[in-house]
Specification:
Layout lengths: L1 E6 L2 E6 L9 E10 L2 H8 L1 H11 L18 E9 L11 E4 L2 E2 L6 E2 L13 E5 L3 E3 L6 H4 L2 H14 L6 E5 L3 H12 L5 E4 L3 H9 L4 E3 L6 H9 L21 E5 L6 H8 L5 E4 L11 H7 L2 E4 L5 H13 L8 E5 L4 H7 L8 E4 L2
Parallel strand pairs: 10-11, 10-13, 11-12, 13-14, 14-15, 16-17
Antiparallel strand pairs: 1-2, 3-4, 3-8, 3-17, 4-5, 5-9, 6-7
Helix pairs in contact: 1-2, 4-5, 4-10
Length: 358
């Protein structure tokens, strides 16, 4: 099969041996696979990615070897063309999405970030029958590929544990931040403030339901967010205001950037008692001032991934079209043009999400 591999820091198309489905596995033909921000980071900073694995993994054999070709791609929709033993032949012909993990071989692997289990930037892909969800017939393949990043956004919203009336600020309107906006609107939370330097991303944020969209280069998103939280007639300069029983609405910030220094900036801009949901994945070392969080009694919640139920809910809602996330898809490429797509995604004015169609 043809596949895009990352080998010693270089992306290129190569020929690999076709995979064979083992017990409990599905052999699938990849129909489309989204390029994720973590794919971009891994391709550019694989050494940092490997260091992150070394810090967090309990299985030394799961650590990536940069000298072994890696096939990335974990946001996939594929068609079943073969099955391993113990799998119903009726699966053949179905379109499926799956959590990007595999345990069928007895050794857990993260699909797309494992030297032993190739991802979706390839013509063929193995997935576990037990966790592969059938894509509803009326769900376009393009939308189905958004299941994984949409589940990340849903998990972040769920972990925020919002009450009615929370005033939300989303810092960073890449695909995951935009997904957070869509889920907040879908679940009836608001008002929603979104901030991003990119005009194109701000436009998408407004389309997806943000009540107020801010260019941080022109004004502070934190000030406008505070304005929405406090009663209109409250004198916020009065140091005794909270002792007088005048308080803002509950507040939450979703940090969806993942660049060193942003958590510190968010903590500086946050109001007292704000819940901060760290969604952006910062691969490098970061730092912030703990006294800021102590003085303001801030709550930091770090989130990762999603649960199987959140993955299934995301696919179901995408199939209805209710989230409006189809507008995130701004381009598609074949395997040959995939390395260039990694470069093109660095410009947020051109693209939000590019799909690879092997």
């Amino acid at each position: 099969m043809r596949a895009v591999t990352l080998h010693n820091g270089n992306l290129g198309v190569t020929e690999l041996t076709d995979p064979t489905p083992g017990p409990g596995q599905l052999l699938t033909k990849v129909l489309a696979c989204g390029i994720c921000g973590s794919d971009l980071h891994a391709a550019k900073h694989l050494d940092e990615f490997i260091k992150m694995q070394q810090r967090t993994s309990r299985d030394p054999e799961s650590i990536l070897d940069p000298g072994t070709p890696l096939v990335m791609g974990h946001e996939f929709c594929s068609e079943v063309i073969g099955v391993g033993s113990g799998v119903d032949q009726g699966r053949i012909g179905q379109r499926v999405c799956s959590l990007p993990v595999s345990v069928a071989t007895g050794r857990p692997a993260t699909i797309g970030y494992s030297n032993t289990h190739s991802g979706g930037f390839a013509e063929l892909l193995l997935v576990d029958d037990a966790i592969a969800l059938t894509v509803p017939p009326d769900c376009p393949t393009e939308l189905a590929t958004l299941t994984e990043p949409t589940a990340v956004s849903l998990h972040a919203v769920n972990k925020a544990a919002l009450d009615p009336g929370h005033v939300a600020l989303i810092v960073g309107c890449g695909p995951v931040g935009l997904g957070v906006i869509a889920w907040l609107r879908h679940k009836g939370h608001g008002p929603i403030v979104a901030a991003d330097f990119s005009p194109a991303r701000r436009a998408l944020a407004a389309d997806l339901g943000a009540d107020l969209v801010i260019d941080p280069a022109q004004e502070s998103p934190y000030q406008r967010w505070e304005d929405l939280a406090w009663p209109a007639d409250a004198d916020r300069t009065n140091p005794m205001i909270r002792f007088m029983g005048i308080t803002p609405k509950p507040t939450v910030i979703f940090e969806c950037v993942g660049v060193p220094g942003v958590i510190d900036q968010v903590m500086d801009g946050a109001m007292r008692d704000t819940r901060i949901i760290v969604v952006g994945v910062c691969m490098g070392t970061d730092q912030f001032e703990p006294t800021t969080g102590i003085a303001k009694e801030l709550e930091l919640r770090f989130v990762l991934g999603y649960g199987a139920d959140e993955f299934a809910e995301s696919l179901a809602e995408l199939a209805t079209g209710s989230l409006g996330l189809d507008r995130l898809i701004t381009g598609s490429v074949d395997l040959t043009d995939t390395p260039q797509a990694f470069t093109d995604l660095a410009d947020p004015e051109r693209h939000a999400k590019i799909l690879v169609r092997p």
